[in-house]
């Protein structure tokens, strides 16, 4: 999983033109930053390296185990973002960042309220999220291909577990309801596989195709067996179909982010 998160971080850097965030916060001042769902720690560690005057706190359900030394201006804690936030002298924050929490976040409104309450005046929250289901850029591609069908199954399975896999479509409304101002929504569809004629999307697609080849099993096994009652053999059979399908350049798949 850590390898997948590191690969995902590299794709985000390409998608964001090597930026770590879009938020309009001063780069040259001491900053306090919270990274929610830190995963491998890749984003927090790079943020700490790029902004040596900042202090970065990364939280995750599991211990973060970086492959190299953690700089002095970065720290990690085991913490569930859906429980009470108690960070001591680490907050309030100038920036709260999160990335791909869709598989676990049940209550986004409460999450955004916590972000609002733990930001300094003028602080920003930045959320990078995906939206299920996935689709093809080519309308002639059937809607029941293995990859598209799988993404609908994941959406259904998440819903049965109390999670909205398409919640990001409502983020601007939720953020404004909580009290945030100057809300900006930026849509960044990622190609899956190197099929695009656009050079940037071609690069993203090559990386995301390989990433999804590895990620589909981790995404699928628990939610499909637990929430939809599939057997492990049924899931494995679908995954084999998906992996072949992703490699087909005529499918022209896109993931919305």
How would you portray this structure in words?
- The chain has 257 residues and is of the alpha/beta class.
- It has helices at residues 2-15, 42-50, 108-117, 146-160, 171-178, 199-228, 232-246, and strands at 32-36, 55-60, 74-78, 93-99, 119-128, 131-136, 190-192, 253-256.
- A 5-stranded parallel sheet has the order 3-2-1-4-5, with helices on both faces.
- α3 (108-117) links the parallel β4 and β5 (119-128).
- α3 packs across α5.
- The model has no long low-confidence stretch (mean pLDDT 95).
List the helices and strands and how they pair.
Layout (H helix, E strand, L loop, with lengths): L1 H14 L16 E5 L5 H9 L4 E6 L13 E5 L14 E7 L8 H10 L1 E10 L2 E6 L9 H15 L10 H8 L11 E3 L6 H30 L3 H15 L6 E4 L1
Helix pairs in contact: 1-6, 3-5, 4-6, 6-7
Describe the structure using short key phrases:
three-stranded antiparallel beta sheet; 7 helices; 257 residues; alpha/beta
How would you sum up this structure in a few lines?
This protein is of the alpha/beta class and 257 residues long.
Task: Please tell me the overall pLDDT.
Answer: 95
Q: What are the segments in which pLDDT stays under 50 over at least 5 consecutive residues? A: none
Main sheet strand line-up: 3-2-1-4-5
Helix and strand element order: HEHEEEHEEHHEHHE
Shape: globular
Main sheet: strands, sense, barrel? 5 strands, parallel
According to DSSP, the number of beta strands is 8
Helices, by number, come to 7
Computed structural class: alpha/beta
Range of strand content: 15-25%
Radius of gyration: 19 Å
Head-to-tail CA distance between termini: 20 Å
Helix content: 25-40%
